[in-house]
Amino acid sequence: MCGILGVVATSLVNQLLYDGLLVLQHRGQDAAGIATGENDRFFMHKGPGLVRDVFRTRNMRNLAGNWGIGHARYPTAGSAFSAAEAQPFYVNSPFGLLLAHNGNLTNAEALKREIFLTDRRHINTNSDSEVLLNVLAHELEAAASGLRLDDAAVFRAVAGVHRRCRGAYAAVAMIAGYGLLAFRDPYGIRPLVIGKRDTPTGGTEWLVASESVALDALGFKLLRDVAPGEAVLIDMDGNFRSRQCAERTVEAPCMFEYVYLARPDSIMDGVSVYEARLKMGEFLAEKLKRTAPHAAIDVVIPIPDSSRPSALEMALRLGVPYREGFVKNRYIGRTFIMPGQGARRKSVRQKLNTIHQEFRGKSVLLVDDSIVRGTTSKEIVSMAREAGAAKVYMASAAPPVRYANVYGIDMPTRGELIASGRDEAEVCREIGADGLLYQDLDDLKAAVRSLNPALQLFETSCFDGSYITGDITAEYLSGVENQRGGKDQGLSIESAEGGGQLDLNLVDQEEP
């Protein structure tokens, strides 16, 4: 779930890219990189760490030019970080290409062999983003007429990428001497939006980004999303054109973007993330009324930050006071995207502290956006009890996360997922709560769809095991498990059309 940016401006873009990456920092804390272009030359700086730590004044001065791309890296599939895997990636043939990528190619290993044996190209890292770059480079070379490149050739090259690559990918690329290219996979799993602004001198500037919040912060007007399978091309003079490059497209955005990954002030595929989370709270409150009408709850407390809209709407619908019971340390990263389980467990209490008077003697309903590994939930329930809560109930705005995600989110090992192999009662006992309420998957879909009825499908594999691209096998998932040293948990897969119905209820624990 990396953050990517692409800018074509009328003046220096180094500061624009830096500021944009700061806004997208929540999408990746592992590494950051910026590449810019001036005439036919590229300039790049990248490294491990947060955006503010990677770039210094001397680095910024060297990033010349009026167009460029940026990347905030989040490690997918639990990969260990190597400095060589910071993005953007560069290849000098043909034409000179730089690329930044958000997502995960599910056929990366097969493509690596194909690239070496057929395309005669060398991959120097374990990153699937370098694979994507080399596939694009080969397709550009095949589509171009000798040394001559035109728009039709670029769009044919992207069509070739769509034919060969599987999985999730939103990408921005720079083609030396030609322009900025952005494209999205045929399912639209990972987000990508387009914005523009007019300059006082009468010029037009363009910005492509993972989330609309980057456009807002930089003064660009949101135009629309890049459509699934679409390619957008902006030359260095600011001329914009686009083309649908996939033979078949299905719009199925990642549901976890709305649940957790995106900032609430972003708009994705025509849906306000904030409003979607309010709707999640509305549906969850109705389920609580339906399944546990006599539940005695004194106060609703969110787990900051992503769950606040859902918790607020739940409290309103239940007629129960909403209170802030946890204070967040802003200098600790998001525990879900920390690379190791030990780091996550340790950071929970460093990140959150309780306001005791909001818990003392009360039956509290804690609302979180999701329960993934359960590390945070278990620690938070314990903290609520230590603060004096009489009863601690937990509600999740998302359904149980039971399956591997292979499209760019770090939750591939089923053994790490607390709901994998456990029913709701067992999860409730594991986190130490007095009761547990999960969102129904159908309600989650309805919550988002109510804001954009055109969205008929979603990528929901982590909830239902239904992989929208249709190419994920048990063998593939076992391979991912083995890469991480995990154990095969009896992997099962549902077809994209299938997916079992989950029976989710509020589970009340007996007194010890």
Walk me through what this model shows:
It is a single chain. The chain is an alpha+beta fold and 512 residues long. Helix content is 31%, strand content 23%. The chain contains 16 helices and 22 strands. The strands form 5 sheets. A 7-stranded antiparallel beta sheet has the order 3-2-4-1-10-9-11. Strand 9 and strand 10 form a beta hairpin. Helix 5 packs across helix 6. The longest helix has 19 residues. It is globular. 53% of the residues are buried.
Share in helix: 25-40%
State the total count of DSSP E strands. 22
Q: Could you tell me how far the N terminus lies from the C terminus, measured between alpha carbons in angstroms? A: 41 Å
User: Which spans of ≥5 residues are poorly predicted at pLDDT below 50?
Assistant: 487-512
Name the shape in a single word: globular
